[in-house]
Amino acid sequence: LLGRDAAQDQEMVLWTSDGEAVDVSLSLARLRHTLGPGAPKGSVLIARDIRERKRGQQKQQQLSAAAQAAASAVKRRAEELSHAYEELKRTQAMLVQAEKMAAVGQLASGTAHEVRNPLSIIRLGTEHLERLLGRPTDGQAAEVLSMIKEAITRSDRIIRSMLDFSRPAKLELKPVRLGAVIGSAVEL
Fold first, then answer.
1. 3-state percent helix, strand, coil for the chain, nearest multiple of 5
2. What are all long-range contacts of 160-169, with beta carbons under 8 Å and residues at least 24 apart?
3. C-alpha dihedral over 74, 75, 76, 79, to 10 degrees?
4. What's the pTM value of the predicted model, to 2 decimals?
C-alpha cells in the first residue's frame, strides 16, 4: 500500500499482539506539500475493523444457503404431493369404474334370472305342445317348433354366459384350447 499514491477499502487480515486475526479495511492517502511538487510529506492510513461486517456476510450466506435448501425441499415436497394427488385421482377413477362394473354385473345377474324364468315356461310349453301334437307331419309346423327350440337354447346360452360374467371368479390358471376361449368370447 505504501508504494501507491492512494488506496481505498483494501481488505486485509492483521494480527494483534495476542495473535488474534482481525479483518480490516484499509484506506491510504499520501500527504503532499501544497506549495509545489515534490516528495510526499507523509501518508494517512485508516484501518477499520470489519469483523462484524464479515460475520454478518457469513451469516447472510449461511441463511441464504439454508433458505435455498428449504425452498428446494419445499419444491420437492410439493412435487411429491402433486404426484400423490394425481395417483389418488387415478385410483379413485379406477374404484368408480370398478363400482360401475359391479353394478353392471348385479344388473346382468338380476336380468338373467328374470329372463330365465319366462324362457323356462316357453321351453316347457313347447315340449308340452310336442307331446300333445305328437310328431308334427306338417313340415312348416316342425320347422317352427325347431326354430323355437333353437332360439330358446341360444337365449339360455347367452343368459348362462351373462351369469358367468356377473359372478366373481377365482383366478384359475390351466391350459386351455385358445380357439374355444375365443369362440366363447365372440359368442358372449
1. 65, 15, 20
2. 160/112, 161/187, 161/188, 162/108, 162/109, 162/111, 162/112, 162/188, 163/108, 163/109, 163/112, 165/105, 165/108, 166/104, 166/105, 166/106, 166/108, 166/109, 166/112, 167/105, 167/109
3. 120
4. 0.44
How far apart CA 40 and CA 6 sit, in angstroms, is 12
pLDDT at 121 over 70: yes
d(CA 126, CA 128): 5
One-letter amino acid for residue 121 of the chain:
I
Query: Which cell goes with 80?
Result: 411429491
pLDDT tier at 140 (50, 70, 90 boundaries)?
confident
Quick one: DSSP state of residue 11? E
